[in-house]
């Protein structure tokens, strides 16, 4: 079961990051003028908030089932960074202050690094004594 929840979490993270990715693809390859990519981006933007919230919950269940408890692990670190991104996203949605969006984006990029570590070397913390 935890494997399936892990795959769902990874898919949700992709969905959450797609608006940013599509914006850069459009800008780099089509000078921001590809309408299909713009439409697709707008569609994924609608999914962004619900997908981000689902990710926070499903990834937590995935981690709890995989570890049998809540303890420090590359997955726990990835989850904490995702929660920070969610909190900043919610704060920006409520307060509409640009600083929250700036940090929301920065923390999201940090989440990419932590999720990559979790997927590539899940036991990384054991090697350094945790
Ligand atoms: C782990 C979860 C999340 C990640 C990794 C994430 C990541 C991002 C990224 C990378 C952007 C920039 C998109 C762009 O510039 O095109 C963004 C924008 C935004 N995010 Fe999130 N996000 C998450 C969850 C949430 C949640 C839960 C909310 C609110 C409830 C939220 C609200 C927003 C808003 C309002 C924007 C800017 C406007 C928009 O593009 O719609 N995010 N997010």
Walk me through the structure.
The protein has 130 residues and is mainly alpha-helical. The chain folds into two domains: 1-69; 71-130. Helix content is 85%, strand content 0%. It is built from five helices and no strands. The protein has helices at 2-30, 35-67, 74-95, 98-120, 124-127. Helix 1 (2-30) runs antiparallel to helix 2 (35-67) and helix 3 runs antiparallel to helix 4. The chain is globular, with a radius of gyration of 16 Å. The structure holds protoporphyrin IX containing FE (HEM).
Written as H for each helix and E for each strand, in order along the chain, the element string is: HHHHH
Provide the low-confidence segments as ranges: none
Relative strand content: under 5%
Structural class: mainly alpha
Backbone CA Rg: 16 Å
Cofactors and ligands: protoporphyrin IX containing FE
The percent range for helix content is: over 70%
* DSSP, total strands: 0
Largest sheet: none
Mean pLDDT: 96
| Net shape | globular
Give the total of domains. 2
Straight-line distance between termini: 26 Å
The DSSP helix count reads 5
Feature tags:
130 residues; binds protoporphyrin IX containing FE; mainly alpha; 5 helices; 85% helix
Strand and helix layout:
Layout: H1 2-30, H2 35-67, H3 74-95, H4 98-120, H5 124-127
Bound molecules: protoporphyrin IX containing FE.
Residues 16-17, 19-20, 23, 45, 48-49, 52-53, 55, 82, 85-86, 89-90, 92-93, 101, 104-105, 108, 111 line the site of protoporphyrin IX containing FE.
Please summarize what this structure is.
This protein has helices spanning 2-30, 35-67, 74-95, 98-120, 124-127. By secondary structure, it is mainly alpha-helical. Helix 3 runs antiparallel to helix 4.
């Amino acid at each position: 079961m935890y494997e399936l929840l892990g795959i769902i979490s990874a898919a949700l993270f992709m969905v959450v990051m797609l608006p940013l990715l599509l914006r850069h693809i459009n800008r780099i390859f089509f000078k921001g003028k590809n309408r299909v990519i713009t439409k697709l981006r707008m569609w994924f933007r609608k999914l962004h908030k619900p997908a981000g919230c689902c990710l926070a919950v499903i990834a937590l269940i995935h981690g709890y089932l995989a570890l049998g408890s809540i303890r420090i692990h590359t997955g726990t670190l990835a989850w904490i960074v995702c929660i920070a991104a969610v909190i900043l996203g919610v704060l920006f949605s409520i307060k509409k202050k640009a600083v929250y969006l700036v940090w929301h984006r920065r923390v999201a990029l940090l989440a990419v690094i932590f999720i990559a570590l979790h997927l590539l070397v899940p036991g990384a913390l054991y090697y350094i004594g945790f």
